[in-house]
Protein 1
Amino acid sequence: MPTVTFTRALERFLQAPPAEVEGETVGAVLAAVFASRPALRGYVLDDQGAVRRHVAVYVNGKPVRDRIRLSDPVGARDQIYVLQALTGG
Amino acid sequence: MPERIFVATHKGLFEIARRNGAWDIADTQFLGSPVSAVLAEPDGGVYAALDLGHFGAKLWRCDPKKSEWRELPVPVFPPKPENSGDDPHPWSLGKIWTLVPGSAAGRLWAGTMPGGLFHSEDGGESWSLCEALWRMPERKQWMGVAGGEQPGINSVLVDPRNPADIRIGVSTAGVWASSDNGASWRIINRGMYNEYMPPEERENPIAQDIHRLARCAAHPDIVWCQHHNGVFRSENAGANWREVAAIRPSKFGFTVAAHPRDPKTAWFVPAVKDEKRIPVDGKLVVARTRDGGQSFDILTKGLPQRHAYDLVWRHGLDVDASGEILAFGSTSGGLWISENGGDSWAMLDARLPPVMAVCFSAI
């Protein structure tokens, strides 16, 4: 199963431990995590379900292409990282 | 007599309380996180809206019985329809800009960027968008704050005589009214002007940049407005406005507080207009009228009168229920409290982060 790791910056606000969940796209994997941690969703995605402007999602070290629909494919051994995007000083 | 003052800043929420007769910081919450709005309820409960740069807008509430903070759901915009491509505003919560209690227990109004008005009937446990306001075609004409893409509802006035009667002030879209608890809306402001618009749009009601509205609680038809282009006063609950030309030392500013009982008294914190946004001549002053705007006292006692560059944002000034105690906080982190209607001020002995909002708590 793919693994998801969240930035430790989230620990100030809520628990976001690493997760190992089923899913064939970034969106499906994240949805599986949020199913058990619903409060976490709003920290990562905006109201339309897109990745927040100042959040970055990587799969195996590469930023995802589709930040709107989260359709990038994910393999069983892939590692997803959810990070803060550095957009300021 | 208020016991506590809550100060929302760019780096946390500060609770100010009396200690041995003097005001001091009694507690801090959310240190390091921007707090965009704060509301203290009569029962001692406190709401704080966070504006986390990376992770979005959040809402927390402190239970008065347990003195524990708990995260609540935030208002959420509905799915953006496929055919809304010409909508210039995002369908996603930018930040909660103002939180206002309704009349019924548990009812709350939340004014937000990008211009959605939400209400809760259960103390913030769930939220509903005022769909009629959000989906009306005129909303696409609303302009963003300070050149940004997001308009903001900065003021929500609930009529104490009829709580279904709501007024909102919008940066930048004038004053809107609903007589049916938000089911339908109409723009009502007449008599304002916006100098930075093209001449033919100057008096267009929807082009008016409402910085802040404040209503006299005992005389709800009296509403004061600090507008981008000056100070205005309405005697019919925000429909017709007369410019208060006597305001000194300048007519620009962001904030206003209305006396809770005296319809002729209000306080402002003027500044050099828009491109500078600093106190006139580096002197921080409060302008108070007690005659309905015919004249103003310039209050300086206890306020810095040399090289002060403090700006006071829309929600940065509050007056308590007595009308005697006031507090305001600045972008430079100063907090001043007056216990005599503004005649003199004492600065809190602290260098706070930039202040976004100030709110008195009765207990």
Protein 2
Amino acid sequence: MDNAALQGGFIDPARDAARAFRAGMEAMARPGTIQTLNGCTAPAPMSVAAATLLATLCDAETPLHLAGTCDTDGVRDWVRFHLGAPLVGRADAMFAVGDWDALAPLDAYAVGTPDYPDRSATLIVEVAALTNTGATLTGPGIAQTVTLSLPDGLLAARVARYPLGIDFYFTCGDCIAALPRTTKGAR
Amino acid sequence: MSDYNFAYLDEQTKRMIRRAILKGLAIPGYQVPFASREMPMPYGWGTGGVQVSAAVLCPEDTLKVIDQGADDTTNAVSIRRFFERTAQIAVTTATADATVIQTRHRIPEEPLRDGQILVYQVPIPEPLRFLEPRESETRKMHALEEYGLMHVKLYEDISRHGHIATAYAYPVKVADRYVMDPSPIPKFDNPKMEMAAIQLFGAGREQRIYALPPFTRVVSLDFEDHPFVASKADHPCGLCGAQDSYLDEVIVDDAGGRMFVCSDTDYCAGRQVDGHRGSDNKEDAA
Amino acid sequence: MYVAVKGGERAIDNAHAWLAEERRGDLAVPELTTAQIREQMTLAVNRVMAEGSLYDPDLAALAIKQARGDLIEAIFLIRAYRTTLPRFGSSLPVDTGAMACDRRISATFKDLPGGQVLGPTFDYTHRLLDFMLAADGDVPAAPEMPVDPAPVPHVMSFLNSEGLIAQETCDGTPASDLTRAPLELPAARALRLQALTRGDEGFVLGMAYSTQRGYARNHAFVGELRIGTVPVEMEIPELGISIEIGEITLTECETVNQFTGSKTEPAQFTRGYGLVFGQTERKAISMALVDRALRWEELGEDDQGAPAQDAEFVLYHCDNIQATGFLEHIKLPHYVDFQSELELVRKLRRDATGQGAE
């Protein structure tokens, strides 16, 4: 196992994960806002924010799907060592991480069931840039509107009917934003 | 308590609760099942709220804990102490200074803001429970958005009493989809649930977490010809004179004499510091 | 002039100090040791381990001392402690067929391989208070004889060999852990058994008794009751072998229940199963009866609407820590909600008398 896989975990796990969760929770509670999230590093090309979010939420109980450039031996080793999360295909994933082209299309991911809409995947989309420009968003967590740069085709790809649906995080460097299934968007 | 992890819970438990919170925020008003742990205080005494608070607290937080609106009620004291010992966070009685507020049965009078988190202790999370005891049935009702049972109950109240006979834990419809139990807050507090802070609800014994992102639409159930009224006792506070705060009725003598005082002790104390006085609190002229 | 009541913190501290005094009791009386509780109140210790879901007689004894003998309070202490323990892994399933039995009886056969072994039982004592026990005295040594090392086969295996009893099949699905996943209905049998073994003995006893009195028609025979020690083994992947990590006492009860049969299935006996930490007989037998009652659906029987057949009712109400927590929470202040009810009742009465006056 490469040394890089053994490094990069939280320095003070309980306290750092607590701070990291707050950033992740603020992002999900206030869709479109961009939060700072750091504390962990993973082998390239995974962003600091994605690595930290995974370390905050994932463990042996959370099947994880690595997509595209995130699916490297280095990242797999890092996941095995730091998270213990089982690595799976899309259909079984509770979490999935990668850039949009590698994660799309959305058909195979769990969207929840009518009785248990919470049993849906959370997708962590690595993006090249994250800015408050682009799509205009409304919904719970948003006072009036907010704008957020979104990958092309993402809004249109969300076909599941509420309350079913996939929830998204967007990560870039140490920045993170979220798009829960309740958020409506228009370009 | 130094042998325990920060905020008591182990990291795996916190991750499990944190995942449930995030799904709760993504599906406002839907009760997310979670594997509630046995805590050092009894089920029914706030273990759900404590687990949620333990999962969200950071070392930098300032925590306020209230029960019936007061910081000094014994269970609020006990829970605040628990977190002081296990998380070493700062604590306060001032609503404005708190970043995390754990509450039982009240929403503070002072409007909450961006950056604050309100954690509710919930005894029975299921708004339909007393109409239908079976979880297997109520789950289906939520799945199908079949809330007829609730509307019938409210309408029967009106036929029988002329009013909806629910005074607290008054059911609400969230983001036009899920009917939710706001916890046993008086219906007077319902309108406050459209707020700028994050609201998290924890039911430990019943193993459910639910959430409201800021500014989520929360509508108390009613009928066009019988609209919801956030009523309270028709008195001002005897100590600070407030007309707009929820009041406790206090028996002051053997003859049954009563006075009404703000249930929110911090709100009342703050108003008195600002010079407001109620009719039972006027200083006599020398 | 009304002054808001303060001093909650001091009240709590003083209450705890007084509690500690009461717990100790009369200082002229020697203090109880946890070893005494472990040795001489073993059945209480067993109950605390069983319902606390933690096998540790010393900890259970400490919990009983701390709880002043309130067993549900002691179980609570153990449950809360258990939550904080790290988990290294799971043991292999224990083999109760290899049990070194202290007690082993069967109501279904007069005699059988392994024999009827009474063990240290109250069963045939006359329930007459023994005042000799109030005066400490020496206990005469019980008669001894050499132990027969031969394993004692399960009675069920005899019925099995004739095909008379429905086979329990293991489909290999791992059982989920009731303490790590929220209870979901319908609950698989493994989950129901977990809930029953840690459920309140009184509640499970009452439910079992109800099945004997017609609430779910089910005459149960005790096919076997065995109490003794079994080794606990764990696989160590790094070593590539399994090792014995200790030994525990278990009570196992298998009941034989009325035979079912259909046009396609031949008549067979069916089972109920109880397994509990320690020598905890009443609980194990109760558990087996309630287990059988809850199996009505998978055995193709009718739902008679009996409480013991209602999985949701039994599983949601058998946990005494949940039950007592919620029961006792009504002692907490509820004056805010009471106030809103007061206002509502006053309003309704005003409106009613107003209407009457018109």
